[in-house]
Design a protein that fits this description.
about 300 residues, alpha/beta, ornithine cyclodeaminase, domain 1, Rossmann fold, seven-stranded parallel β-sheet, about 35% helix
Length: about 300
């Protein structure tokens, strides 16, 4: 079995290859070739714990245990922590044990990037929230797109300045004058339980929301959802069950089910969208499965990772 650390994942990572793996995963999912049961979740106070499982005879089996603990930020610890196990679907052999915090951040950013690749070419990007997920989104977007300018807002000036310094070090042009409502693309990556984006700016083309993973939590206001021409979700099942940004305005009648489209339908060209778009993600187990296979295959090819024997 291979053990893949944070450092190994970052060295092996290639954004285009990862997006190709995810595209294949979505195609297999739409074809019914992937078993993706509902994840087991414990939501207590403001903390969230989940166990995610996916199976495909073509790809393997992946199990991830993940936690989202917002108070960790005050302790200098990652808000999201996880561990991933990747197995053979043919004989059950454990193939890889993967550091899941970096893995999840990269996977989430890649799924957002896949949506953006199908929907628009981001040029001006404004980040709402400047934590780990925002950093990996900046990292992945830099690899894939010709980003003209970036800016951000955060709870603290220190966090914002640290994030923008990170962006500058990546080679992204920081424009502190870029207003949120003027950015073509807005990336919302927070641990907030209440809306942090109140309006859909006239120049905003797409708002990407990856936080608020519970029915009671929100990142986006009702007005944002109402103004969107389409809402693209990473999966119907996950977002209609877990995303407060979808569940609450849908139940209140602010949005109609007909304007919700899944990313899988876009990947397989079953549907198309235009106009102002909200992309909402809660994460799906099969995304982990196909990214786990990508990392395992590449580690084997390059002789990376630490080999350990359990038996």
């Amino acid at each position: 079995m291979l053990v893949l650390s944070k450092q190994t994942l970052e060295r092996l990572f290639n954004a285009e290859e990862a997006l190709n793996a995810l595209s294949l995963g979505y195609k297999h999912f739409e074809m019914g070739l992937v078993s993706n049961p509902e994840r087991s979740v414990i939501a207590k106070d403001n903390d969230w714990w989940g166990v995610m499982l996916a199976h495909s005879y073509e790809t393997g089996v992946c199990v991830k245990a993940v936690s989202v603990l917002p108070n960790n930020a005050k302790k200098g610890l990652p808000v999201t922590q996880a561990l991933v196990i990747y197995n053979s679907a043919l004989n059950g052999e454990p193939l890889a044990l993967i550091e899941g915090t970096t893995f999840t951040a990269l996977r989430t950013a890649c799924v957002s990037a896949l949506a953006l690749k199908l929907l628009t070419k981001p040029e001006g990007v404004f980040f709402v929230g400047t934590g780990l997920q925002a950093r990996y989104h900046a990292f992945v977007l830099k690899e894939l797109f010709d980003i003209k300018e970036v800016n951000a807002r955060s709870k603290t000036t220190r966090s914002r300045e640290s994030f923008l310094s990170y962006c500058a070090n990546l080679g992204l042009k920081v424009n502190s004058s870029l207003k949120e409502e003027d950015a073509q693309t807005v990336i919302v990556a927070t641990t907030s339980n209440v809306p942090v984006v109140e309006r859909f700016g006239e120049k905003n083309r797409i708002i990407v929301s990856i936080g608020a993973p519970t029915p009671s939590a929100r990142e986006l206001s009702d007005q944002v959802l109402k103004k969107a021409d389409y809402i693209v979700v990473d999966s119907y099942e996950g977002c209609l069950r877990e995303a407060g940004d979808i569940i609450q305005p849908l139940n209140a009648g602010f949005i109609k089910r007909e304007k919700i489209v899944s990313l899988g339908e876009l990947v397989t060209s079953k549907k198309s969208v235009s106009g102002k778009i909200v992309y909402k993600s809660v994460g799906i187990a099969f995304q982990d499965l196909y990214i786990a296979k990508f990392f395992f295959d590449k580690a084997q090819k390059e002789g990376a990772g630490q080999s350990v024997s359990l038996f």
